[in-house]
Amino acid sequence: MLLESTRRESPAVSFRDALLGGLAPDGGLYLPTAWPVVALDELRAWRGLSFPDLAVRLAGRLLGDELPGQVIDRLVREALDFPVPARELLPGRFVLELFHGPTLAFKDFGARFLARFFSHLLGERDQHATILVATSGDTGSAVAQGFSGVPRVQVMVLYPAGKVSPFQEAQMATLGGNVTAVRVSGTFDDCQRLVKAAFLDEGLSGLHLASANSITIGRLLPQTFYYVAGYLAVAREIGEEVIFAVPTGNVGNLTAGVIAARLGVPVSRFVAATNVNRVLPDYLESGVYRARPSVATLSNAMDVGDPSNFARLLELHGGSLDRLRRSLYSTAISEEETRAAIRSVYARTRYVVDPHTAVAWAAADRFLTEVAAGSAGPDGSHPGSPGRPEHPVVTLATAHPAKFDAVIREELGFAPALPPAYAGWQARTLAAVDLSRADYGDFRRLLVSRC
Ligand SMILES: *Cc1c(COP(=O)(O)O)cnc(C)c1O
Q1: Is the pTM higher than 0.90?
Q2: Closest ligand 1 atom number to CA of residue 398
Q3: How far is CA 374 from the centre of its chain?
Q4: What does the alpha-carbon distance between residue 13 and residue 439 come to, in Å, rounded to a whole number?
């Protein structure tokens, strides 16, 4: 696989170099120069495969020219060893549950795949590296869990004291081993400033610092796999188009969906759902990209004011606003509408959605009333049974509702239970290192002593 920077000012590189390098030297994001295409006959033949079996085939298709089949097979099976169920909540309305990984959110797909491939590629070169992440919660826990125990890699995760949930903190700060959790007296922005300063510090080049943020191609590729799995689970016949509703922040998940469509998944439209951090819908409407400070919401993993994968999304549409408008329907959902969606999904289906999934569900509702209604028959009905949308609609469920028990309790009057495997997590001992002021000198000493 040959990859090119979205800015086209640095040379094309292999998957190996793109994965180990992160950002392209010209500051752009790597995208493959060509995509393999999966034919409908193949999709038909893949129906019924388990998720790991399907993921192995897709990874082989993408990376088979660079890595031996057995290596891909082993790394993918180690990384993606959990199910991806689709549930039909209403006729033609599905949720695709992406929260069965260890941190109960979809970032496990990217983080675990990246960790295994990163470690393998370091091994080929007999190198070691240090992954450095600043987190407001979800990314750090997925990365810490993903890299925990993985050879050749030290991980340091910085999080703001008192500003991540106790469950997220437990997932970062109880692992030990190659994972150091640093609890910073400060804000998420302070954590990010320390990490950025370390990346620019030439005196630290011996540590081989690397990032695991959502711009790495190693997180993006595995996210395409669950779109294929979701398609195979919901299409009545292969070839039928479906709609994916995606809760969107840094636009990584959505970009992976667009790539899946490029690989051959028949997609009618993407519903790109944001919370009130509405940079994307505003861009589609006005044609002017305007980054702005992020606003805190219930769907906090989507509180993004300058989506880092936007350049990729645009490039995948040839830089054309018109093409982007044809491929995406994007809309912003308010806090009150998010709460209302949690209540109404439960009232209609007895299914509990987390706030991120609720944003996407509400956006899909809006799409079906505003846009898809235009294609209804003369009597207002759609082909198929009454109330069934013309195309299957798959809402990506990106987090387990138990991670957001406070808001669920407010809206539904009860707290959803964590899966049984998580019983007793409160009892685990936190082993975070405290950084009592967000000072770069202090942080640098810690980094050098630990890595
Ligand atoms: C990160 C995250 C999102 C947003 O995904 P992007 O790829 O950043 O658009 C949505 N939901 C949850 C639960 C997340 O953790």
Answers
A1: yes
A2: 13
A3: 32
A4: 36
